[in-house]
Amino acid sequence: MSAPGTRQFDSTKPLPGLQIERRCFTVVDGDEMFGLPVQSVQTIFRIEGVTPVPLGPADVEGLVNLRGRIVTAVSLKRRLAKAPLDTARGTLAIGIEHDGENFALIVDDVGDVITCEESAEIARPPHIDPARARLTSAYYRLDGGILPILDMKAVFDFAERNRSTGSAHLNTAITRSDQ
Amino acid sequence: MDELLKDFLTETAEQIEAVGTQLVLLERDPSDAAMIASIFRLVHTIKGTCGFLGLNRLGQLAHAAETLIGRIRDGATPTPDAVTVILAAIDRIKAVLAELERTAQEPEGDDEDLVQALELQTAAVAVPARHPPATALETAPPEPANTEPSRPARTAEEPALQVRRPETIRVAVGALERIMLLVSELVLARNQLLELTRRQSDDTIKAPLQRLSGLTSDLQDAVMRARMQPVGRLFSSLPRLVRELASEVGKKIHLVTEGAETELDRQLIELIRDPLTHMIRNCAAHGIETPAERLAAGKPEAGTIRISASHEAGQITINVIDDGRGLDIPRIRQKAIAVGLAGDAEVARMSNDDICRFIFAPGFSTAGAVTSLSGRGVGMDVVRENIEAIGGSISLSSTLGQGTCFSIKIPLTLAIAPALIVQAGGHRFALPQVSVVEAVGLGPGAAHTLERVQGAKVLRLRHEVLPVADLCQLFGLADQANDWDAKLVVVMRVGALSFGILVSAVADVQEIVVKPLGASLAHLSVFSGHTILGDGSVVLILDPAGLAGSLGLQRTSDYNVTAPADLTAPALERTRLILFRAGSDPLKALPLSLVSRIESVASDRLTQSDGTLITMHQGRLMPVVPASPDVALTNNLHPILVVSVGGESMGLLVDEIVDIIEEPLEIQIAGGADDIVGTAEIRGEAVDVLDIMHFIRQARPHAELRGVARRFKILLVDDKLFFRDMLAPVLTSGGYVVTVCASAADALALLQRGIAFDAIVTDTDMPEMDGYRFAEAVHEQPRCGHLPIIALAAHPTAPVLAAARASGISAVAGKFDRRALLDAVRTCLSFKDLANTELEQRVLTEKAA
User: Fold this and answer.
1) What is the ipTM of this complex?
2) B536:A49 CB<8 A
3) Which residue of B has its CA nearest to A178?
């Protein structure tokens, strides 16, 4: 029940009349840069004391105690299926809450908050690896390069993935680490 | 809703419960004047308030009931008929109140029937003239004080009421839960602080910290106590239940309750309500004999059901004892053999208590007649499951002709649990202490030894041989000390199952606050949650039931109901299999139908390209995947199984082809790894049956994306883990991709998220939403209108088939009839052209992209 006279605004949508733009928090993984929707980033911290989860998904590094709260640490590198399983773990993490669960997304480095104008959005290049494309919601043309925006829903879709029988992330990780 | 009405509803709900109980007591002891007065008072208050709030229908009913009760209070004997009609009136009042609570309106309809019956009884019960009215107030019209909706007037005439209602305030359950949660966090913070200061010798901080620690414990205790309620709350509804049961089965039954003041967590009180009711039903229906039988046996005519609650070492014990005929052991033995729970020889070796435990097996009932009370084949197994689900246990003992005693043990609370912190492979895990029986050292000279049987570890403990789960092995952890001597086996008991867990050490015993796993990890059945230890580190909490499952033990496996041998059943279908060796693991197999050719390729013709092996096959490049990571690449010729994937081929590299055989393929253990469907016993040897889809995904990832190798997707819904685990491999081995759900609600949630399935296989008998209603709900979903649904029933009888047809279910299969299930699925899907649907979906997804 809302009091008369107040209006509810959806903070994720632009107010009418304003230039449509999107603020992104940039993160670096290897030589690639990604954008995260700024409203989904809660905190940035160094993780220590990770408790691994045996039998858990390969891209879940483990559980971390973040100020008395248990968060699930997910490696962006493994999520993108770039790293063989034994790569040393980074310690820089971004706190993100998704679907009631607290996650720590482990990245190599963090960058600035940048503003992406609607006019700079480009269509998804069609030949991007479908597994990768699935994790991305949009692409923006910047001066320095193209910035893919990570889709938080797809990145943290464990619940769905665990329910389905497939485990594509494992397969990719294994084939790539054969080398 | 009106505040007054809300207060009225909460208040009356409790009072009306009390009236029902007291009336039953009154029937037994009509001389208790104080009780009559309090019953009268309650109905009187309801009537008064109804007038005040303008609830006419309720008012009339309450008035009629009040008149009759008033007559009884004035000295009339409460006949059973009078009590029955008063109980009926109270039931009606309850129903009207429930409706009021939902809609804030009195429901339509009148209660003329009941009002008349009440008036009839009022006329029938005679009032002896010698009883003058007790006080003036009781016959007076409602006074302003009585119409106060939130509280019955506390006047000097009501000493009984005053004693019964000590000073209390209402607190929302949510508020208590929140306090509990905060205290849990406080306990954790305290533990962390203690851990930090343990290494310091600063005395200035030690004293206040000790005090903080003590206060925290006290606070925790106080909050736990606030959540506690006397178990009498649960007992209060029992006299009425027993009265009804007794009249229904035509027996005389006394109920005795003891230890009503024993307190336990309110959450648990609600959770044991159903199991307890069920057990009492059982006692009334099976335990207690008819009056004639009892007299013939030299017992008093009326049977007694005694329910007692007591505290025992951090647990609550509730006993349900009857003085009836006791369990009929020979009959249970016969039935157990008949339904295939055990063999003749096995049963002969069993003790009476062990045989009694068969009544906890699913679908086990020795009752000849099916009554509305019991004997429907559902019962004690559900009781056992419910009790075990809250970390409790149930046992029974019985003496023929003298009675039966069921004993339930449950923990005091679910929120904070003592746990063993165990170490394995350098990691720590928490193990709930309630399931731990003992820890057994394996050092030299120890009385018990760990042995290997065909690679599996077992512990010989006294006269038992227990399967042992090696945590390091199970979790793939590097094991520093490969020396069993230094290790421990923690012996666990879940229900009737015992097993061991091999760990390196027990590091600590701590009280842990159990927190559930997030969605990302909730699928790991071996963990039940996680917690933060005193030193701030996170540990996973092992789930004893899940661990038992990982050993292949099922909660119900010791009662494994196998259908009685059916001589007319068709023999299992035989499958042509290719057996081969790849890597060091057991023999592997693939259905031959999947293999189009077997080639021999020299190592030098295998080229590495982009991380994948490639070879030339029939003039085209073909990716080759090793069937196991440790297939040796030598210079010899390598056998390669060529598998066709919709026009493209891939090779599966193996070490050696062993044989091609024709055998019935029955997956006995569902695969844990991605690359196998499961393990089957072939010619007395365990063979891994490979999941070819896994290798196709590796070699030709796009083939699957394009859908050429797509398989039908089936959603399996069953509330019982046992059946999910049994049927999922059956469907998988039938070539389907199976997703399992434990409830109709979960399944609907999946469909709502747009996950597409080609067919649904659902149990019919599920709590909350049964299979029929689920089927209807599915067909109401967008895009699911024509989704074929196959129902599982214990016995596909005519009424089941009719109900299934009415709710749009395509076919019904028996739960234990694998062949019928696969046939039904195949028939339902036969009209679905895989290729066409695939094309359609592809076009749709491309459009969407």
Assistant:
1) 0.73
2) yes
3) B611
